[in-house]
Amino acid sequence: MKARVTVTLKTGVLDPQGKAIEGALRSLGVEGVDSVRQGKVFDIELGSADRSKAEAALTNACEKLLANTVVENYRVEIL
Amino acid sequence: MNAAVLLFPGINRENDVARALQQATGKRPPIVWHAEHDLPKGTDLVVVPGGFSYGDYLRCGAIAGRANIMDAVRAHAARGGLVLGICNGFQILCESGLLPGVLMRNANLKFVCREQHLRVERTDTPFAGKYAKGQVIKVCIAHGEGNYIADAETLKRLEGEGRVAFRYCDEAGKVGGAANPNGSLNDIAGIYSEKLNVLGMMPHPENLIDALIGGIDGRGLFDSLAGFSASFAA
């Protein structure tokens, strides 16, 4: 089973990297970009075929390590 | 004062901090590998040094903050034992749950490496007894992720409980503005835990302990610790 975990910054947390990328896109002439927030994607393979077990394991992984929930949100998707 | 210095892959300031501790206490502290489950018997103070543990992968301090030895450090802190985290060590203490908040990328996106003045916010702690309240000290900073962030409620609690240890200031002691090198909220350079036994700070006092290399303002912190007597042994 394959899964994807996406970790993003919470609303209101300053993201200087996103701001820099936003500025770079503007200077490259890419139009229509209002704002950029940078995050992380983890592609994870699981041995289990049990969907709910996999979701529970990945939520645990996010809470324990993959996300710092002080400033980040996470989303678990089973692919 | 029996100190122990933790070592994780990618940490590179352990010898600097060991030298500062030896100068203050007269004893070379043992270096403790992260995979250990126990601190040396009789440890009073655990120091988590600076560097780039695990290459700063995932988030600064995230992987080190979950190492085996950190369970022993959490137990030590819960007993009232002293813990000092410097730079990456501060990030590790935040990631391990020993201190609130998080250190984000510097607001100007630059790695800053320079001398920096700090204002000592309180002196009634084991870490700052040899300084004067409001004293301006000159130490070093060298970090890319030192921008201290906490939610409004946490920040209010830190300020209300007087848990800000040091603030960034200029030579004259004026806090903030251009003297803030990284965008930290309230110009925070270091914070204490609730019981004032855990200190995390981004600047490097261990690099200002010899007049030959820039000054001795960092000595006060290690001398304070050396002079503090208490037993926290398990």
List the keywords.
heterodimer; A: alpha+beta; Mth169, Chain: A; 3 strands; B: 234 residues; Rossmann fold; 11 strands; 21% helix
Describe the protein's architecture and organization.
The complex is a heterodimer of chains A (79) and B (234). Chain A is α+β, with helices and mostly antiparallel strands and 79 residues long. Chain A has a single domain, classed as Phosphoribosylformylglycinamidine synthase subunit PurS (Mth169, Chain: A). Chain A contains 2 helices and 3 strands; from the N terminus they run E-H-E-H-E. Chain B contains 5 helices and 11 strands, in the order βαββαβαββββαβββα. In chain B, the strands form 2 sheets. Chain B has a 9-stranded mixed β-sheet with strand order 2-1-3-4-11-10-9-6-7, with helices on both faces. In chain B, strands 5-8 form a two-stranded antiparallel ribbon. In chain B, strand 10 and strand 11 (198-201) form a beta hairpin.
